[in-house]
Design a protein that fits this description.
The chain has a single domain, classed as OB fold (Dihydrolipoamide Acetyltransferase, E2P) (Beta Barrel). Helix content is about 35%, strand content about 15%. The chain has three helices and three strands, in the order ααβββα. The longest helix is centred in the first third of the chain and has 19 residues.
Length: about 100
């Protein structure tokens, strides 16, 4: 079997290989979207967990609450956010980074 590739086929194959390598070597959390804006409005559904997001590149500093399979980007200095993080901490649920 003789394999012969044109220059454009080789370039395409190289790009696919690089994308696969980047996908395999990256931390899965870095592949997900991040919060680019936050809200100060309280969440009315039960909050089951949270994650703290640091500001970097286009991502803003945020507390990401999870509730009923959804995620909410909340302003970290909003009084209700601070109270909810403390409440979660006291109940044994920790916010992850």
């Amino acid at each position: 079997m003789h394999l012969s590739l044109t220059l454009s086929q080789s370039a395409s194959l190289f790009c696919v290989a690089m994308l696969l390598c980047a996908h395999v070597s990256c931390d899965p959390m870095k592949l997900n979207a991040c919060c680019t804006t936050t809200s100060s409005y309280p969440i009315t559904t039960p909050i089951t967990g949270c994650r703290l997001q640091r500001a970097s590149h286009h991502c803003v500093k945020a507390v990401i609450f999870s509730s009923e399979g959804r995620y909410f980007c909340s302003y970290p200095r909003a009084p209700w956010v601070i109270a909810k993080v403390r409440e979660l901490f006291k109940s044994g649920a920790r916010c992850t980074f």
